[in-house]
Design a protein that fits this description.
This protein is of the alpha/beta class. The chain has 4 domains: about 5-35 and about 465-485, no CATH class; about 40-220 and about 445-450, no CATH class; about 255-405, no CATH class; about 490-714, Rossmann fold, CATH 3.40.50. The chain contains 25 helices and 11 strands. The strands form 2 sheets. A 7-stranded parallel beta sheet has the order 5-11-10-6-9-7-8, with helices on both faces. Strand 10 (about 650-655), helix 23 and strand 11 (about 680-685) form a beta-alpha-beta unit. Helix 2 (about 15-30) runs antiparallel to helix 16 (about 465-490), helix 10 (about 190-250) packs antiparallel against helix 15 and helix 12 (about 295-325) packs antiparallel against helix 13. The radius of gyration is 69 Å and the shape is elongated. The protein starts with a helix and ends with a helix. The relative contact order is 0.09. Mean pLDDT is about 80; it is low at about 50-60.
Length: about 725
């Protein structure tokens, strides 16, 4: 649809588009005339997002875009939750019930009297604790739980001021830009109710949020305490298992003991090697020294003789001492002294001989060799015994190493279990400490704070009556205009020449207005003459003016298309040019539209295929300039394609006020394939707007302003 068509369509329905919005505006005005005044109060809550911290992360703040949005969504849902609003509504009801007299700052006279209708005096006396809001609120809550169908439940469900669903509808929560502030707004028709409802909602919200946080923290503490007991038991079991293992295998320090065994083994091997070297040297020295002991028997006899001589000397000395005591033993003393001297000389001789036999070939005295042999012999025996002991010690160390080596893996596993259990225990203990810290923090400070307290609205909100009236008027106007445009697109009729050409695939030779809808300002005769001339000019292109008569066939595919009406107007135009016309029409044509010039025929007989020559004879013998043959509705009668091909032009008369469905399009496609004569469309009953697109400007009386506006649009 072009802009020009749009404007024409809207102008055509101008009064409808104007009257509907006016009626709607008047209706909205009277409906909104008695709307109650609206009051609004607001409060700003600081959400303190840093309070949402982890329990076991040292209190580190985890705050990003998604976390922040999630936090504000949770706060919004909590504030608008049914439980929060119910608590606030019950507290508001308790405040109103303890009022003995109306007070405009708390409860107006109208609301006071209305509340009496719902809460009678008996129930009021049971619920109210004079001058005590909290106890009254507690009694109302208990009464509601004990009596679910009490009047209090009705108030919470249906009342405009106490109804939970009604309060939630008027409660709005929004984040202030990208800050940590949350604005809470409430609207209602009473200033006092507006103020106290919002006040109680914010209080209930902060209490519930703090309770939720404390409950979460208590659950965290209980969880950590349970886990701490489990971790402590696991740690103790692991430590006991490690202790039993070390006790059973007598392990003081595995690594030091293992190091000691390794060092002891190394030292033992070194000692064994050293003993073997000493033993080897000792055996060689003993072999040499034992070679010196070949004259041992001779030396032994000398020694024995010396020993016997010494004994004799001793006995002689005893006799000498006894002779000295006697007075007459001088001779005996001399004799004994001489014998003693002889014996001493003998000893000296034997000693010299013994000395000579005691010196080795290497210059070593035999006595010294004997001592050395004795030492070496002792050393040899010691080393032999030492090697035996070392072998036993070596086997003992090897057995200890074989026994001690596999214990390392098991000890490592037990130590690892202890380490893991200890780390888990310390981690859980840290989390428990952080949970206790958070608990103390929540007890000392509140996570939310009221930055702006709810205020008592002194003035109502600006009235929306004008907005509703204007909005209703423009909305209904736009809706009406949209319906007009929608109905235009949904209209199945042919309407325009372009649409007719699109549906039929044929060129439109001319059009005719729907004269029933023509305004009085249209110059009908001038318009008719112009339309007939336009159709004639298109038609003349296909006529052979060198021969007469010109056979023109008019047909349609539906009843009421207006063939006879158009043909009669065309005949008038031809006769005005001093030309003659022969006109045949079916006898089914209504008598009211038939003229004296029309020659009827029976379409059920005369249009059969065998009647073509008869028609050709009629055309040749008519003696007229034009021969018009009007065919009936070809959707109801047989089509004589041979007869139609005899014509110079076939004219499909189509009504713009009728639809042209697919069935008729298919029938037309068959006709187009069957005939070879030129084929045109004459579009009847067009609106003046659509006719102007085909013909041009419709001749009618116009004001200068209308002509100027039309020139701008065109």
């Amino acid at each position: 649809m072009s802009l020009k068509q749009m404007i024409r369509l809207l102008l055509k329905n101008f009064w409808l588009i104007i009257l509907v919005p006016l009626v709607v505006a008047v209706g909205v005005y009277f409906l909104a005339k008695n709307l109650p005044m609206r009051f609004e109060s607001s409060a700003i809550v600081f959400t303190n997002p840093t309070s949402d911290r982890g329990v076991n992360d040292g209190g580190a703040i985890r705050m990003d875009f998604y976390t922040s949005n999630n936090l504000f969504d949770n706060l919004t849902l909590l504030l608008r939750s049914r439980e929060t609003v119910t608590q606030a509504s019950l507290r508001l009801l308790a405040l109103h019930l303890i009022q003995k007299q109306p007070d405009e700052e708390v409860l107006s006279m109208e609301n006071f009297e209305e509340l009496k209708k719902h809460i009678d005096d008996d129930l009021r006396s049971k619920l109210v604790v004079p001058n005590d809001l909290n106890k009254t609120h507690l009694r109302i809550s208990e009464h509601l739980q004990a009596n679910p169908s009490s009047p209090v439940e009705y108030l919470l469900r249906e009342h405009p001021h106490y109804g939970v669903s009604n309060i939630i509808k008027e409660l709005f929560v929004a984040r202030k830009a990208s800050s940590d502030m949350m604005e809470v707004t409430y609207r209602t028709d009473d200033a006092a109710n507006c103020y106290y409802t919002l006040k109680f909602i914010t209080e209930a919200f902060m209490e519930r949020y703090s309770g939720i946080k404390e409950a979460e923290n208590i659950n965290s503490i209980l969880y950590f305490e349970d886990q701490l007991r489990i971790a402590q038991m696991k740690l103790r079991n692991a430590e006991a298992e490690l202790k039993d293992f070390m006790t059973e295998h007598r392990i003081l320090n595995y690594y030091e003991q293992g190091k000691y065994l390794d060092i002891a083994k190394l030292e033992h091997e070194q000692d064994e090697e050293r003993s073997r070297r000493i033993l080897s040297g000792t055996m060689a020295n003993l072999a040499k020294i034992e070679g010196l002991f070949d004259g041992f028997d001779q030396r032994q006899s000398i020694i024995n003789e010396i020993s016997e001589t010494q004994k004799e000397i001793v006995s002689k000395q005893l006799e000498l001492e006894g002779a000295q005591l006697s007075r007459n033993g001088q001779d005996l003393r001399q004799q004994l002294t001489g014998e003693i001297n002889q014996l001493q000389k003998k000893i000296e001789e034997k000693s010299t001989l013994l000395f000579n036999n005691s010196i080795s070939l290497e210059g070593l005295q035999r006595r010294e060799a004997l001592d050395e042999w004795l030492k070496l012999k002792l050393t040899y025996e010691e080393q032999v015994q030492a090697l035996d002991v070392m072998q036993e010690r070596k086997q003992y160390l090897q057995d200890k190493i074989d026994e001690f080596a596999p214990l390392g893996a098991e000890l490592k596993r037990l130590e690892r279990e202890v380490s893991v259990s200890e780390s888990q225990y310390l981690s859980i203990l840290h989390g428990l400490n952080m949970a206790y810290l958070k608990k103390y923090d929540l007890e000392m400070t509140s996570p939310q704070k009221l930055i702006d307290e709810p205020f008592f609205p002194k003035k109502p909100l600006p009235s929306k009556k004008l907005f509703l009236v204007v909005g209703g008027m423009f909305g209904s106007g736009f809706f009406t205009a949209s319906l007009v445009v929608l109905f235009f697109f949904l209209d199945p009729t042919v309407k325009s020449a372009k649409h007719a050409e699109k549906l039929t695939g044929l060129k439109v030779a001319g059009g005719w207005a729907n004269e029933k809808l023509l305004p009085r300002s249209v110059m009908k005769e001038t318009m008719r003459n112009q339309l007939i001339t336009q159709f004639r000019n298109h038609l003349n292109r296909f006529l052979d003016h060198s021969s007469k008569p010109h056979l023109i066939v008019f047909y349609s595919l539906s009843d009421g298309s207006g063939k006879t009406f158009l043909i009669n107007h065309y005949i008038e135009k031809i006769r005005s040019l001093n030309q003659t016309v022969t006109y045949y029409s079916p006898d089914t044509t209504p008598a009211t539209t038939r003229t004296n010039e029309q020659q009827p025929y029976d379409p059920s007989v005369d249009l059969l295929a065998g009647q073509t020559q008869r028609w050709k004879s009629r055309v040749d013998n008519c003696g007229s300039d034009y021969f018009f043959l009007e065919l009936p509705n070809l959707s109801e009668f047989d089509a004589n394609y041979e007869l139609m091909n005899l014509s110079e032009t076939c004219i499909l008369v189509l009504s713009a006020a009728q639809s042209f469905p697919e069935g008729k399009q298919t029938a037309l496609a068959v006709i187009r394939e069957a005939i070879t004569s030129p084929h045109l469309v004459w579009l009847n009953r067009m609106t003046t707007d659509e006719l102007e697109d085909l013909h041009g400007e419709i001749p009618k009386k116009r004001t200068k302003i209308r002509r100027w506006a039309k020139s701008l649009i065109s």
